[in-house]
Amino acid sequence: MSFAPHHDAQNADQALSVSQLTAQIKGLVEDSFPSVWVAGEVSNFSRPQSGHCYFTLKDDNAQIRAVVWRGSAQRLKFDLTDGLEIVCRGRLDVYAPRGSYQLVVDSAQPQGVGALELALRKLRDKLETEGLFDRDRKRPLPRFPKRIGFVTSPTGAAVRDFLEVLRRRWAGAEVLVIPTRVQGDGASEEIARAIEAANRVQPALDVLVVGRGGGSIEDLWAFNEEPAVRAIAASNTPTVSAVGHEIDTTLCDFAADVRALTPSEAAERVVPSLEEVTASLTDRGERLHGVLRRRVRMARERLAELARRRPLARPFALVEDARRRLDELDAQGRRAAQRIGRDRRAQLAAQAAQLESLSPLGVLARGYSVTTDEETGRLVRSAGETKQGQRLATRLADGTVYSVVASEE
């Protein structure tokens, strides 16, 4: 094979620059793949301060560079991490300065797990870690609420069902409907503001119901978003979450004090049944009457038994016995006093006779006398104890004789 030199020269004159070739490739690739779905595993993930996400999307046999610009990354409902299997939609882009191509991702979701479900799991784990779902935080509902608040859409079937059941069960409660959107972008924030407004109502509400009718997970998603869940957890008023139908479960259900399967069941949980309360009061009244009748019967039997006893049958018998006993004790006392008096008089007479026999007066009665110095009262025992002119007093049995010593012998 031979090549004509002039042809080679002509081809050389028509050679493309690298930029021209890259531009053609860029146009061809980007025009051919304006939108494409790609599945693969995330690796080499990075997210600089710019907020853009860079990673490699790979499978067992190939790989491609990928980027998620910050605006698209903020709309993702899950975090991109190494090893995560995802399905993403984007377009191919050729980066001329490096001569490489990459996938510019507009949206993505985990492979096998929907993005909403993954976002729900992520937020649930976060709030559960903070303790917003703890059982210790749950408060009991008041038994007989007077004022009930209902945060919901005023045009939905939920509020009609709720009011109908409430009217049938307990018509005396006052209901305040706090209107709000219950689905769509921004609905969660509106629900949170409605809950905060309900907590400022005066007079204060006794219980607050937050809910809506059933729907798809997208319809109920506002009750899975952080603002509404945190507002329910922070409510000063005991809350009931009544979102969707029996099979629907939202994060608001976990944060509320009580979960109701439906708005209708919320009405049943919030107020008692008038029929049941009436039946209960009737039953308790009958039991109370029975107890009172038994007690009255027992009291009468006890009173009859007491009436048959001697103190009540003869109420003055004890007084008569006491009076008789008192008379006996008085007679005994008098006899004892007389006996003691006689004994004391006999003892006194004996002692007097004994004293009389020892008394000096008794000696004087037998003819003796006692002489004392009149001035000093000193006893004169002998003539030698006297002196002339001394005045003496001589005690006789029947009187005293005064004398003066005429001379000393």
What does this protein look like?
The chain has 409 residues and is α/β, with parallel strands linked by helices. Among the domains are: 17-113, Nucleic acid-binding proteins (OB fold (Dihydrolipoamide Acetyltransferase, E2P)); 145-272, Hypothetical protein af1403, domain 2 (Rossmann fold, 3-Layer(aba) Sandwich); 363-404, no CATH class. It is 44% helix and 21% strand. It has 13 helices and 13 strands. The strands form 3 sheets. A 5-stranded mixed beta barrel has the order 1-2-3-5-4. It has a 5-stranded parallel sheet with strand order 7-6-8-9-10, sandwiched between helices. A 3-stranded antiparallel sheet has the order 11-12-13. Helix 5 runs parallel beside helix 9 (263-270) and helix 6 (187-199) packs parallel to helix 7 (226-234). The chain starts with a helix and ends in a 5-residue tail after the last strand. The model has no long low-confidence stretch (mean pLDDT 85).
Please trace the helix and strand order, writing H or E for each element. Answer: HHEEEHEEHEHEHEHEHEHHHHHEEE
**How would you write the strand order of the largest sheet?**
1-2-3-5-4
**Main sheet: strands, sense, barrel:** 5 strands, mixed, barrel
Regions with little confidence, pLDDT below 50 for 5+ residues: none
Q: What is the radius of gyration computed over CA atoms, rounded to a whole number of angstroms?
A: 62 Å
Helical segment count: 13
Using the alpha-carbon principal axes, give the shape. Answer: elongated
The proportion of residues in beta strands is 15-25%
> Helical content, roughly?
40-55%
**What is the mean predicted local confidence, pLDDT?**
85
Topology-level CATH name of one domain? Rossmann fold
Output the structural class: alpha/beta
Instruction: Assign the CATH class of one domain.
Output: Alpha Beta
GO cellular component, one term: exodeoxyribonuclease VII complex
Organism: Pseudobythopirellula maris
Family: Belongs to the XseA family.
Function: Bidirectionally degrades single-stranded DNA into large acid-insoluble oligonucleotides, which are then degraded further into small acid-soluble oligonucleotides.
